[in-house]
Amino acid sequence: MNKNTKRLHEIHFPNHSDAYILNDAEIDAQNAWAYGTNAKAIADNSHAEGKNTFAQDEGSHVEGLGTQSSGDYSHVQGKYNQPVENHAFIIGGGSEDNPKNIYSMDWEGNSS
Asked: How far is the C-alpha of 97 from the C-alpha of 13, rounded, in Å?
């Protein structure tokens, strides 16, 4: 392990079972994972990884840079997405000043 590698620390909070955090990530939910820089998982069973990511919906998973979930059980990856309700999957391809989606799929299988 080099000097820049940090170990995963298991954190137990009252009423927050199986919560895991690494680096300066933040969790506030049950069964949540967050690791990276400013990664936040604040909904039960959510997972945030990367930099400035925000998993705010039940069972959501966000990864990349500046991504945020867009509904329960959604998956978002890429960079700087625009949240869209009722979508299962989004790939962000924007910038901090201009978030946008380069691909999205709703729960009916329609993509854009």
From this structure: 36
